[in-house]
Amino acid sequence: MSSLYSVEKEKNILIMTISGKYSYTDFIKYPKIIRNECIKEKRNKIIVNVSPVFKSDIPLVELFFLGEKIASVLKDHFKVALIWDGENHNRFLQKVATNRLALIRTFDSLENAKAWLIRDREDEPLFS
Predict the structure, then answer these.
(1) DSSP the chain
(2) Is the per-residue pLDDT at 125 higher than 70?
(3) What's the CATH code of the domain at 89?
(4) Cα separation of 80 and 70, whole Å?
(5) Nearest to 81 by CA among 33, 20, 34
């Protein structure tokens, strides 16, 4: 694997930090890893920080397939705050996933991501 991840527990949310080098073959596996970690820890809110990942130009087609994978695996059962710096393409991934009913938003800071996750809303998923 070109990337590694670690998971921390904080109150009622998980924080997953991914580091290393971007690889599509690694990243396409992360939605299942995220789901499994949330189920294991009995939490439905997670921050996924990919800002430490070295990313060159990621093709839009890869972001499209990643967005579809996120939506098909996580659906609306988990609320995901993605911390992704830099590229404007990060919104494309979010749009693909949310158009397929995933609860995901992209942020540039940990504080903003936490604020969105902690806020109680009607669209918040129920842990099953």
Answers:
(1) --EEEEEEEETTEEEEEEEEE--HHHHTTHHHHHHHHHHHHT-SEEEEE-TTEE-----HHHHHHHHHHHHHHHTTTSEEEEE--S-TTHHHHHHHHHHTT-EEEEESSHHHHHHHHHS--TTPPPP-
(2) no
(3) 3.30.750.24
(4) 10
(5) 34
User: Is 123 part of a structural domain of the chain?
Assistant: no
**Number of domains the chain contains:** 1
Burial class for 16, CB neighbours closer than 10 Å (0-12, 13-18, 19+): buried
- Measured distance CA(112)–CA(80) in Å, rounded: 13
Residue 8 CB partners (closer than 8 Å, separation 6+): 14, 15, 17
Taking only the tens place, the pLDDT of each residue in 84-115 is 876 566 689 999 999 999 999 999 899 999 99
Residue 127 lies in a domain: no
79 to 4, 37, 57, 115: CA distances (angstroms): 22, 13, 27, 12
pTM score, two decimals? Answer: 0.88
Cα-flanking dihedrals φ and ψ of residue 61, to 5°? -65, -35
